[in-house]
Amino acid sequence: MDSYMTFNHILVTLFNDIMDIEEKSIITDTFRDITNNDMHVIEAIGLGTPKNMSAIAKQLRVTTGTLTISMNSLVKKGYVKRERSEQDRRVVYIMLTAKGKLAYKHHAEFHRKMTEALVEGLDPEESKLLVRALTNLKNFFEEYAKEQGMF
């Protein structure tokens, strides 16, 4: 198999495996009431300062209407809470509850293991080359999405 075919096969397989295995790894008995999509909303909210809906929607590249559906579900399930700003009562901030923080950390652990596996055994030059290759791929997706009017 030539390099093109090998790269194509690896990329297609990786994409499918990441989506499938991540979901099975992340959605455990503890977090069986949420979806992989919910977990990515939790990741976007993060552990830092509270965010508003627009900032989270922009990060996820979805509309605030679409995000509202997920957010209502996550609030109902106890992963997320909403709080109005003290300075401007029209502004609503989103933050993780203790349960949401546990889910976030669980998801982050999966990503940490995945990233460690990626660079395992690479010397500094190989790591630089891999970063360049993955950056090229990321840039391709961003440009392709813009050209197609996806975002």
Classification by helices and strands: mainly alpha
Provide the gyration radius in Å: 18 Å
Q: Gap between N and C termini, in Å?
A: 35 Å
Please give the count of helices: 6
Q: How is this fold's topology laid out?
A:
Elements: H1 3-26, H2 36-45, E1 51-52, H3 53-60, H4 64-76, E2 80-84, E3 92-96, H5 98-119, H6 124-147
Antiparallel strand pairs: 1-3, 2-3
Helix pairs in contact: 3-4
What does this structure look like?
By secondary structure, this protein is mostly helical. The chain has six helices and three strands, in the order H-H-E-H-H-E-E-H-H. It has helices spanning 3-26, 36-45, 53-60, 64-76, 98-119, 124-147, and strands at 51-52, 80-84, 92-96. Strands 1-3-2 form a three-stranded antiparallel beta sheet. Helix 3 packs across helix 4. It starts with a helix and ends with a helix.
Outline of this structure?
By secondary structure, this protein is mainly alpha-helical. It has helices at residues 3-26, 36-45, 53-60, 64-76, 98-119, 124-147; strands at 51-52, 80-84, 92-96. It is globular.
Descriptive terms for the model:
151 residues, mainly alpha, 6 helices
